[in-house]
Write a structure and sequence with these properties.
The complex is a heterodimer of chains A (about 350) and B (about 350).
Chain A: H1 2-16, H2 28-39, H3 43-60, H4 62-65, H5 67-92, H6 100-116, H7 122-145, H8 151-170, H9 177-183, E1 193-196, E2 199-202, H10 203-221, H11 223-233, H12 235-240, H13 245-271, H14 282-292, H15 304-323, H16 328-350
Antiparallel strand pairs in A: 1-2
Helix pairs in contact in A: 3-15, 5-10, 5-13, 5-14, 5-15, 6-7, 6-8, 6-13, 6-14, 7-8, 7-13, 10-11, 11-13, 14-15, 15-16
Chain B: H1 2-21, E1 27-32, H2 38-54, E2 57-62, H3 69-82, E3 86-89, H4 98-106, E4 110-114, E5 126-129, H5 132-147, E6 156-160, H6 167-180, E7 198-203, H7 208-221, E8 227-230, H8 233-245, E9 253-258, H9 261-268, E10 274-278, H10 280-297, E11 310-311, E12 314-317, E13 327-328, H11 330-336
Parallel strand pairs in B: 1-2, 1-3, 3-4, 4-5, 5-11, 6-7, 6-8, 8-9, 9-10, 12-13
Antiparallel strand pairs in B: 10-12
Classes of the chains: A mainly alpha (about 350), B alpha/beta (about 350).
Amino acid sequence: MSQSDSYDDVVKTRREESFAEFEDHRKGFIGKFHHALHVTPALVPLIVLVASIIIFGLLIGDRFFSPFSLTLILQQVQIVGIVAAAQSLIILTAGIDLSVGAITVFSSVVMGQFVFRYGLPPTFAVMGGLVFGTLCGALNGLLVSRMKLPPFIVTLGTWQIILASNYLYSRNETIRAQEISSEAPLLHLMGAKFNVGGAVFTVGVCFMILLVFVLAWVLRYTAWGRHVYAVGDDPEAAQLSGVNVKRTLLSVYMLSGLICAFAGWALIGRIGSVSPTSAYEANIESITAVVIGGISLFGGRGSILGTLFGALIVGVFTLGLRLLGADAQWTYFFIGVLIIAAVAVDQWIRKVSA
Amino acid sequence: MTKLMASTALAFACMAGAAAAQDSEISACLITKTDTNPFFVKMREGASAKAEELGIELMTFAGQVDGDHETQVQAIETCIASGASGILLTASDTSSIVSSVELARENGLLVIALDTPLSPIDAADATFATDNFLAGELIGQWAAATMGDEAENAKIAMLDLNVSQPTVGVLRDQGFLTGFGIDVGDPNRWGDEEDERIVGNDVTQGNEEGGRTAMENLLAQDPEINVVYTINEPAAAGAYEALRAIGRENDVLIVSVDGGCPGVQNVADGVIGATSQQYPLDMASLGIEAIAQYAEDGTLPEPTEGKDFFDTGVQLVTDAPVDGVESISVEEGMDLCWG
């Protein structure tokens, strides 16, 4: 413990001094722009987000540009946004988590069944769901950090295990919104909404935004946050410089599981009922948001704010295209284009020019 | 975990039983898309009960998830190898499974498609299914009659299954529009209609989350929507949440198809106006009877007159019946529901 405290001190004192910086030898607008993108990874998705809002706003007009529509996008992306925050942490460590969607839906099922099958008080059921999600994350984390199995393989396995257990445990039965409203309104908490001048926010949306900002701060300003980046960038170098790689990985996977459980809670608020068939695509959708948000799949690079923007870009395209009356297929088409474009931009930013 | 082990043990026991029984008795196979969806659970119950009654050995197989085609192919091969007399199949992939089905038929097995017709439908010896077009037509007629003269000015949201337009989704959608009195254009695909009363189509994946998002998207296009067609009851529950969020849950008519217990309960609670109920238990038990008959004297099951499949029936469930559309009450619907 004292070790990390002194590490903090060092960081604090050193911050006064000037660090080694990338010197910009290139000239002209492109060079400066390139440099700006390099030092601020969330800038690209932010530009794409603003551009797509403006384009759809021009094409559609008030129906899209209203506070109602714009906050609707927030509501529609809240589940994916929260799950993508968890996915970002994992991908920053150069891992990938295919089980996030399964953990999300199983956590929501646990919360529902604890109340309706075992008659436990809702507060306890929610805590049970959160603990459950954390344990699922811990399972992934132990297999990755102790057994040294590749994250892709581990979570490919746990995805199936957790999803199958979810169906078996829930017997694929839905708990209806009416019963939840009357007996366990706490489960609907994340769906509670409030109006601010035509804009509709839900507790879940606020949770998503708050979560992203807290994680962004933690990743940037705490020792743990820097360890996450270090482990993702080069685990051996991190180990040699005194980072406990195993413990960092385990904590990242556990935190990811916990966040997914919160997403499960938000899921109940959004769809009203507890349904074991929801959110099963959240793993792919969250990876999409992370990639479009500019976090490198090779780890150690990118900002979690970018992930939020990435999720919002997908939401803007989905609603925008639907309002234009386009066939739903076009949404998938453009999301695919965006994914490839995002990786291409990522490569361009990384390119070291002579 | 114990449940998992128990069911595995049970599966082995069933297989062993079937293997031992094959030289003396008749055996049959039931292959469903998954073994956790309440619809298929009910199907298995119906098949097991009838098989026990007739003294037939039943083997059951299921894919892990909807769309798990490989497992179904393996199941058919296992069935052929075990010397069963017939297969009841709910195909995940209606066209790709055809070659395996042909193999089974060449080996003298009777293959009956349950719930989901194969493409082409005559790839199986028979199809026992709900008339999905009729199921849609009933809720369409009910919605039009309930609105009366206002049906002329209806604003309709169509919440469909998914972008690949599987037959079941197309039939229900087109049936609803026909029942409502709207020209459907090409009856083999949804979305090509010109009628101005249709605000738009969106896809739900047949679950609550998809239903809510699709409803929100269509409401953003036209907040005045007053009729909502939904592919199934989970999608309807999601659509209701979207309407509730903007305070319009009481002035919009939602109709659906399926007849699952939570869905029928939602009709009782006024979430859904009316739903068309289908009968998985009957599909399976009639299927087992047909296999027994075939094993005895080689009789092939006959399709319902005027249709290319055996119609296992569909009934409209509502507590607000209208003239000219036959329906049953929610109470009767609860007795017949599944899941």
